[in-house]
Specification:
about 0% strand, single chain, about 300 residues, mainly alpha
Amino acid sequence: MEYQSGAVGPVDSISKGWDIIKNDYWMYVLMTFVLGVILIAVTVILSIITGAISGVISGAIGVATTNSSDVTKASAAVVPQLITQIISIFTNVLSATLSGTLFCGIYKSLSKLANRGERAEFGDLFSGFENIQACFIFAVIMSVIQFVIAIVMLLGFAAVGFSVLGFGLAGLIGKDGQIDTTILSGILMVALAYVAIMIVVGLIIGALTTFVYPLIAERNLPAVQALGWSIKGGLANIVGLILLLILSGLIILAGFIPCGLGLPFVAPIYIAGLFAAYRSVFGSVGSNQNYNPPPPPNFGQQPGY
């Protein structure tokens, strides 16, 4: 499979995406609205289940350690939190798998609309369940990657933060009772640097994984293969994709401003823009833009003609 370098333009992708969905815009508004409702409902249900399990375990441990020492009680109190964190990993994977299948459904709909001119249908939203296995595997991979990055960033921030605080706690408040602005500025700079690094890392990961769901949906690729091609295409268009993600983020932010009511109206434009960028990099399915057919044979110069 081939891909193009430097093919993603942020404004151009949004414009092409709008051209794809404009005739079926309201159907995609309905699909993205239902997608959001489903994800919110599932997240709430999983949170309730996680809280209930944690509560039952905490109650059982509390009863079991009633006559135990304070040290034992303190140690046992950590167990429910640990179990909650483990459960949350599985619930996050389930949520990501569900959202991935629904997004694949929308990308399948966009594919048939863009490639074959077929109209969008509400049932397209659930067509992505054909690729639920690939979405599940990708969700697991991303959960592991995000966990590792979070741990590394947390340890790095903690190390720098503790060094700053350790150096500055004694002198943070001077003899006159005033806060030393130099030390306070250092602490704030560490916090801002942490936030900036997290934003940059998030944008890079987002750019490199932008094409995973379109590749799964349209080309029926396995998760690992789709991720590999997405990374290759993303690296070849990293600047354009980061700018597209920033522009798309501003569009989503605009949808959140009126109490989130505008989100279903801008979400289709966001998704279609990413799909248009994907087509710019990987082309449309079945396209033969670089194919030149051979000339027809000249039978007139052969014996018998």
